[in-house]
Write a structure and sequence with these properties.
The chain is an alpha/beta fold. It has 11 helices and 15 strands. A hairpin with a 6-residue loop joins strand 13 and strand 14. The chain is globular. The N and C termini lie far apart (57 Å). The structure holds NADPH dihydro-nicotinamide-adenine-dinucleotide phosphate (NDP) and guanosine-5'-diphosphate-rhamnose. Guanosine-5'-diphosphate-rhamnose binds at residues 90, 92-93, 133-135, 185-186, 195-197, 200, 218-220, 223, 225, 259, 310, 312, 315-316.
Length: 367
């Protein structure tokens, strides 16, 4: 019998990687996608196309984390062995602008799923994974952060995820549910959302390299993050649901880098050298050398600037994870290095920008 998995947030970065991972493991995969006015399935279209030919057991359902009736209906219909709750308003900065919606989808949404499992009598059958986050640590109480570090969230997103974390623990303890939290530190990839800082950097620098953009505006360049690759992290999400007992685990690389360093490393992959001048809001990243001669006019010019619009009312300055429990109990460790991650993202965005340029040039020729 095929195992059946239900993934909320299937159209997101992790949803796409996890769907591929579970399909490769022989699962029947069901995904929840919400209604949008434009297509939002670019990351999983290849899987959906194959499912239409009957080659892959991959099914999409319309539903929303803010709508109990849709979640109840889907869970009843799918009768999943495993639910991976990845759906969330996942942008920290946006959560300051949409705090109530963030609480509804990221906090109460989790309760809706847990209650659906109970109401439908699936407690003994369905295992539940909650996408918890290093944002729970917020104002950091100790370095590095492990499963034992106290939480102190610093955004409406972090606070909503705190409720989600504890309601998952509570349903495990109160009802004997197999429910667990993966406390994942930042993880990125070429399909990372374009408004998160890593992807924003690699996209913009690739465009600058090809003359499609002249500069990149960022916020807090001193922020420190523990960045891993999403492909490595979804394996861990699955592993957490295969244990004898449900437990919560920190997933991280144990390496920390600043936003500024991410910029420098990405620029280097693209053949550009940046030097920093000034400080605070006046800081500028000056292009001092470039392999591509076409960039000569930009040498000596600021291609990275700081814009107060991208600062947050309260910031999480420094995150560094200690995943030793995951290593010892689950035999997991991150496979992709920071350098490999930056390289993969920067080169992917360079190729994407090159094809955009090529199609713009060819349409000019046709005219
Ligand atoms: P993304 O933002 O890429 O994906 C979020 C997904 O949730 C999308 O499919 C989105 O749909 C969906 N979604 C948002 N709101 C709703 C809603 N109301 N109802 C149904 N679906 C909804 O996030 P990631 O893939 O990066 O992250 C996955 C999860 O892991 C999230 O919960 C995030 O908070 C958490 N997390 C992520 C980390 C990271 O570094 N990536 C680290 C730690 C935790 P749509 O495509 O339509 O927008
Ligand atoms: P984060 O990721 O807030 O850690 O949440 P993000 O990439 O948005 O920010 C990381 C750090 O970079 C700083 N920063 C900027 N951020 C953005 N988005 N845009 C900018 O221009 C910019 N300039 C500097 C931020 O201030 C921050 O310090 C991500 C999300 O995936 C969450 O869902 C997840 O829970 C956490 O990672 C772990």
């Amino acid at each position: 019998m095929k195992k059946v998995a239900l993934i909320t947030g299937v159209t997101g970065q992790d949803g796409a990687y996890l769907s591929e991972f579970l399909l490769n493991k022989g699962y029947e995969v069901h995904g929840v996608k919400r209604r949008t006015s434009l297509f939002n399935t670019a990351r999983i279209d290849h899987l959906f196309a194959e499912s239409q030919d009957g080659k892959l057991p991959f099914v999409l359902h319309h539903g929303d984390m803010t709508d109990s009736s849709s979640l109840l209906r889907i869970i009843q219909q799918v009768q999943p062995d495993e639910i991976y709750n990845l759906a969330a308003q996942s942008h920290v900065a946006v959560s300051f602008e949409e705090p109530e919606y963030t609480a509804n989808s990221d906090a109460v949404g989790v309760l809706r799923i847990l209650e659906a499992i109970r109401i439908l009598g699936l407690v003994g059958k369905t295992r539940f994974y909650q996408a918890s986050t290093s944002e729970l640590y917020g104002l950091v109480q100790e370095v590095p952060q492990s499963e034992r570090t106290p939480f102190y969230p610093r955004s409406p997103y972090g606070v909503a995820k705190l409720y989600a974390y504890w309601i998952t623990v509570n349903y495990r303890e109160a009802y004997g549910m197999y429910a667990c939290n993966g406390i994942l530190f930042n993880h990125e990839s070429p399909i990372r959302g374009e408004t998160f800082v890593t992807r924003k950097i690699t996209r913009a620098l690739a465009q600058i390299r090809l003359g499609l953009q002249s500069s990149l505006a960022l916020g807090n360049m001193d922020a420190l993050r523990d960045w891993g690759h999403a492909r490595d992290y979804v394996e861990m999400q699955w592993l957490m649901l295969q244990q004898t007992e449900a437990e919560d685990f920190v997933i991280a690389t144990g390496e920390q880098h600043s936003v500024r360093e991410f910029v420098e490393k990405s620029a280097a992959v693209l053949g550009m050298t940046i030097e920093w001048v000034g400080s605070g809001l006046g800081e500028r990243g000056i292009l001092t050398a470039a392999l591509d001669e076409a960039l000569s006019p930009l040498i000596g010019k600021p291609i990275v600037t700081v814009d107060p619009r991208y600062f947050r009312p309260t910031e999480v300055e420094s995150l560094l994870g200690d995943a030793s429990r995951a290593r010892s109990k689950l035999g997991w460790s991150a496979k992709t290095s920071f350098e490999e991650l930056v390289r993969e993202m920067a080169l992917f965005d360079l190729r994407t920008a090159e094809s955009r340029l090529a199609s713009a040039n060819s349409s000019r020729v046709v005219k």
